[in-house]
């Protein structure tokens, strides 16, 4: 409620309370005779002079009465009421309160509607222009011209004047002030925009909300055309409610209004949000959204999102997001993201991320990812991951400066740590080892990762007659390079040993250190000590298989855990 309107309400209450006393004590100001002469003077100035002669002040809503309009007045000993009727055309009622005269719209004006209709033509060719938007900005009423260029607007008569605007893509905007209160037919001509004024078409990866698949499905062709025509007109309002796009308290102009509070029973199509918006099914916003946007199915935003955006199925932001984005299905951000993005199965950020991506299936960061990616199946960082990737199966990034934890970890280049069964770095650490140790005399192992941390896949067999043994396992290691050719490696491995029975696999855990020396470009020799931890439920082995422990040192008093020192030596290739 505006300040003027609040003042009107308060003064009307005073009028009700004080009117009897006013009638007893003073003459009505409306019956006072005045002398007033004015020629082409602003209405506000004339009212001030009238009030000064009558000994009172005027109170009125400046939206309903244009104080800058020019008027003429010649009154000699004429009652105030008669002068006002002549100046205001009978469109107002007069209410007295001590020291004030309040101007309110007359009942006939408040209930009156009038129509502005007519045709829109091209000024150069004279042909009718179809699909042009004709609208009144104060009342937010609009219409599209038909194939004959015809339009019709229904306007309230409570306002002193109306401003008719015509907008059409590829044409200059046209504005025409008209008198209000009675039906009128207009002939409007619009001028094609010069080439220099045409908006350049910028080809980017971003599209407008109307061109998303959700926009194409839920918005009519007329709504899309209206948005195209009115792409330079936006306004703000405190509250709106709609049932579907087009059935709104802002009429067909809802798509051009930024609201502070918005309720969409099924769905809404607005210019943006600066507060809170809730929809039963969907919200579509052309521009920026601030604070809170909630929808039962989906949200689509053409600009930035600052705050919380949540939907039952999906969120799509065509620019960036700073805040929290939550959905039961998928989230898509065409720009950057700072905050939290969480979904049921898919998150996608086309540019950089700073924060957390969490989903049940796949996360994708198209730019640099600073923070955490958590996924049930896979994380993909197309450029740089400077943080943590945790996935049930696969982690990938072009450049790693953080940590990857998953079954398979891939980094084109790595300055971080990959922890998984298979770790692949295209320009990282790749070595094939052939070696012997005190447990099995023929072993193969594959190291992959980088010098800071690499994974080890290994398998071995003992070929000595009557002492067969088969082992396979996994480990982690790190290397300290004193020179390009000379290094110290520290490794820990875990193996399963087959000693004649799959029902009685023994576990062998080894910690070993080795000095490694490169004797040629892709060949190195290594050797070093090891310490073994051996565990088995049944120490007896099958006939023809090797007996463990090799040197019995039971550290658990009969519970099957043994330790001993060992060795290894071999050759590393690549």
TrEMBL record:
Keywords: Signal
SUPFAM superfamilies: Carboxypeptidase regulatory domain-like
Record keyword Aminoacyl-tRNA synthetase present: no
Name this protein carries in UniProt: Carboxypeptidase-like regulatory domain-containing protein
Origin superkingdom: Bacteria
Residues in the signal sequence: 1-26
InterPro entries linked to this entry: CarboxyPept-like_regulatory, LA_2272-like
Species assigned in the record: Deminuibacter soli
Keyword set includes Cytoplasm: no
């Amino acid at each position: 409620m505006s300040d003027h309107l609040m003042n009107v309400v308060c003064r009307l209450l005073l009028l009700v309370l004080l009117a009897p006393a006013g009638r007893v004590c003073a003459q009505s100001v409306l019956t006072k005779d005045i002398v007033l002469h004015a020629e082409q003077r602003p209405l506000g100035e004339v009212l001030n002079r009238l009030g000064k002669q009558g000994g009172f002040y005027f109170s009125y809503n400046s939206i309903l009465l244009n104080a800058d309009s020019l008027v003429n007045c010649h009154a000699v000993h004429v009652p105030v009421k008669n002068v006002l009727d002549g100046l205001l055309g009978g469109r107002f009622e007069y209410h007295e309160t001590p020291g004030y005269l309040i101007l309110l719209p007359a009942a006939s004006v408040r209930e009156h509607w009038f129509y502005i209709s007519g045709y829109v033509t091209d000024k150069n060719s004279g042909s009718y222009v179809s699909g042009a938007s004709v609208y009144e900005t104060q009342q937010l009423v609009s219409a599209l011209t038909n194939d004959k260029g015809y339009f019709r607007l229904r306007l309230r008569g409570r306002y002193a004047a109306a401003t008719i605007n015509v907008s059409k893509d590829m044409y200059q905007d046209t504005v025409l002030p008209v008198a209000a209160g009675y039906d009128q037919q207009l002939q409007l001509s619009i001028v094609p925009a010069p080439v220099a004024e045409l908006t350049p078409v910028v080809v980017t990866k971003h599209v407008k909300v109307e061109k998303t698949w959700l926009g194409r499905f839920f918005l009519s062709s007329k709504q899309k055309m209206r948005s195209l025509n009115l792409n330079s007109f936006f306004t703000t309002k405190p509250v709106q409610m709609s049932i579907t796009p087009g059935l709104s308290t802002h009429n067909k102009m809802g798509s051009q209004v930024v609201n502070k509070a918005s309720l969409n029973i099924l769905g809404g199509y607005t210019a943006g949000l600066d507060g809170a918006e809730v929809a039963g099914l969907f919200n579509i916003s052309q521009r920026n959204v601030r604070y809170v946007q909630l929808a039962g199915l989906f949200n689509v935003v053409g600009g930035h999102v600052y705050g919380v955006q949540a939907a039952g199925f999906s969120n799509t932001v065509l620019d960036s997001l700073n805040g929290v984005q939550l959905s039961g299905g998928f989230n898509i951000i065409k720009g950057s993201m700072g905050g939290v993005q969480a979904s049921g199965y898919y998150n996608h950020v086309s540019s950089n991320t700073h924060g957390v991506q969490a989903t049940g299936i796949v996360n994708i960061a198209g730019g640099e990812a600073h923070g955490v990616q958590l996924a049930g199946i896979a994380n993909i960082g197309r450029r740089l991951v400077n943080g943590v990737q945790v996935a049930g199966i696969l982690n990938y990034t072009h450049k790693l400066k953080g940590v990857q934890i998953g079954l398979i970890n891939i980094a084109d280049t790595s300055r971080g740590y990959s922890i998984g069964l298979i770790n692949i770095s295209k320009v990282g650490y790749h070595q094939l080892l052939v070696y012997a140790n005190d447990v099995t005399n023929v072993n193969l192992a594959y190291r992959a990762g980088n010098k800071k941390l690499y994974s080890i896949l290994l398998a071995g067999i003992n070929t000595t007659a009557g002492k067969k043994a088969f082992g396979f396992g996994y480990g982690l290691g790190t290397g300290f390079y004193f020179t390009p050719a000379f290094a110290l490696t520290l490794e820990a491995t875990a193996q399963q040993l087959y000693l004649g029975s799959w029902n009685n696999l023994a576990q062998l855990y080894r910690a070993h250190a080795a000095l490694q020396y490169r004797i040629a470009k892709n060949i190195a020799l290594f050797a070093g000590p090891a310490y073994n931890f051996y565990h088995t439920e049944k120490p007896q082995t099958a006939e023809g298989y090797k007996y463990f422990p090799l040197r019995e040192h039971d550290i658990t008093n009969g519970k099957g855990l043994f330790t001993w020192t060992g060795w290894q030596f071999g050759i590393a290739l690549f």
